Amino acid sequence: MASISSAVTSGQHGRPARSEQKYSDRRLRLAGFAVGLSAVLIAGGVWLAGASTPSWPNALSTLLRERRGQQVYDANCISCHAGPAGGAIDDYPPRHNANGHTWHHPDCFITRVTRDGISQPSALAPPDAPTMPAFRDRLSPDDIDAVLAYIKTLWTPEQRIAQASFTREMCF
Ligand code: HEC
Predict the structure, then answer these.
(1) CA 72 to ligand 1 centroid distance, Å
(2) What was the pLDDT predicted at 8?
(3) In the chain, where does DSSP find H-type helix?
(4) Ligand 1 site-directed mutation target among 73, 81, 109, most atoms within 8 Å of CB
């Protein structure tokens, strides 16, 4: 026995009316899928445009600065401050790597010491120790920024976070 709705929709020819109904169901489902898909694509596009795309040039320029900084460091600093591995917190000259204590200083201090040097060595300095030379005539401000970026790659993620907060508090 036909239901009321099929009696209404089928009219004289039941089959065409039913397949029309099925067809429009499929169309609805397709439309729903298309709406869902475009929502995902739009959301993805917004995410790409807003978050990911602009950070690529930044990441690349940071990487290039760090590599430049390593060249500057290897040519000018490594002879006294040593490399990425080894050392202890009370070594003199201080280690710049994660075992040393340079990461306790904010950016502006590290930059200033590199530019102007330290003419009065600390009381902890052994009598025959070298002094920290001024690099202002040998390195450009860009080189000094690059060497600082490289020194930061020697630190642990926790040290970097802590040092960034010292910089926020002390450098303005
Ligand atoms: C001839 C040896 C020598 C060279 C080369 C040298 N330094 Fe130093 N540096 C020292 C000494 C010694 C000290 C410790 C000064 C003090 O505190 O009395 C020091 C201290 C520093 C400090 C302070 C760090 C801290 O933990 O207190 C920074 C930053 C620094 N140097 C950066 C550099 C950078 C960057 C270069 C290369 C561009 C460089 N130094 C090259 C000898 C040197």
Answers:
(1) 14
(2) 42
(3) 4-10, 14-47, 53-76, 78-81, 107-116, 141-153, 157-170
(4) 81
pLDDT reading at 33 higher than 90: no
Residue 34 backbone dihedrals phi, psi, to 5 degrees: -65, -40
Query: Model confidence over 125-166: pLDDT tens digits?
Result: 888 889 999 999 999 999 999 999 999 999 999 999 999 999
Classify domain 56-170 at the CATH superfamily level: Cytochrome c-like domain (1.10.760.10)
Residue 123 CA to ligand 1 center (angstroms) comes to 15
Cα–Cα distance measured from residue 23 to residue 29, given in angstroms and rounded to the nearest whole number: 10
pTM here?
Answer: 0.75
State the Cα–Cα distance between residues 83 and 154, nearest whole angstrom: 9
Q: Which residues contact 100 (CB under 8 A, 6 or more apart)?
A: 81, 87, 88, 89, 91, 94
My answer on whether omega of the bond before 93 falls inside 30° of 0, hence cis, is: yes
